[in-house]
Design goal:
The protein is α+β, with helices and mostly antiparallel strands. About 50% of the residues lie in helices and about 10% in strands.
């Protein structure tokens, strides 16, 4: 019998399953150049690696994070049915490891892809991956927007993932070029992003002065991850096309 995937622990799991199963594996998505099958491969690899690294920490035998190619290569060789079973098996394993992690200090730092994450962030990161890639499949339906708009999604994107999300865009800067921007959602903290000379910064801050762009919470998460809402009017700005273009170039995602 397949191990259980706790939908209280991973409430984004079932919406992801529903989204994927309603489309062909070869159907395109909002994630550039990825089909639904590519997203399933990515998610299975994410679940496997998050469980593997967190389990190593829990057992006192730390392991390094493998590259995407290392974890996804074997999955790409599977047929669609075996791949789907692999995703469910790896999610169930992550569920078990995350449950075991409830019994250890939550503030411990665990090495993950060149940075560290707190123990609870491992399950939270999988939740974010499920929410984001559900949107990649469905687009801007109301349920997807609601999931992306939850406050924890912004916090996790900034605190746990923020700097890696800016590295790709920062590589496009000209020598000596500097970008700083405030991404505002009314009634919440600003997300402040900055990049110069190969260094990046991202943080939550009290609203102060004019915003570079103003949008809703779901669209801001999409922007941080290098995506765009289908309706461009959800993004408002008065800084002009040159500045806004530079900022959106910085927000390139992985």
């Amino acid at each position: 019998m397949r191990a259980k995937i706790d939908t209280d622990r991973f409430p984004e799991w079932q919406p992801f399953v529903d989204a994927v199963q309603q489309r062909r594996p070869d159907a395109g998505t909002w994630c550039e150049a990825w089909t639904v099958r590519d997203i399933v491969i990515h998610q299975a690899g994410n679940a496997e690696e998050l469980a593997r690294v967190l389990r190593g920490h829990l057992e006192g035998q730390p392991v390094g994070t493998r590259s995407f190619e290392e974890r996804e290569g074997p999955l790409r060789a599977m047929n669609d049915a075996d791949l789907w079973n692999a995703l469910q098996d790896r999610m169930a394993t992550l569920n078990e490891v995350a449950e075991a992690a409830d019994r250890v200090p939550a503030d411990a730092d665990v090495a993950w892809t060149g940075r560290t994450m707190k123990v609870p962030w491992f399950a939270e990161h999988m939740r974010e991956e499920l929410a984001l890639h559900s949107w990649d499949v469905t687009g801007d339906d109301a349920a997807a927007q609601a999931r992306l708009g939850e406050p924890w999604m912004t916090t996790h994107s900034v605190i746990a993932v923020g700097k890696p999300l800016l590295v790709k865009g920062a590589k496009r800067l000209e020598p000596g070029e500097r970008i700083e921007a405030r991404l505002r959602v009314p009634g919440t903290d600003d997300v402040v992003v900055a990049a110069e000379n190969g260094s990046v910064r991202i943080e939550l801050a009290d609203p102060d002065g004019p915003a570079t762009l103003e949008t809703d919470a779901a669209a801001r998460v999409l922007l941080l991850w290098g995506r765009r809402p289908a309706d461009p009017s959800r993004i408002c700005s008065t800084v002009g096309p040159k500045t806004l273009g530079r900022v959106r170039s910085l927000l390139a995602g992985y």
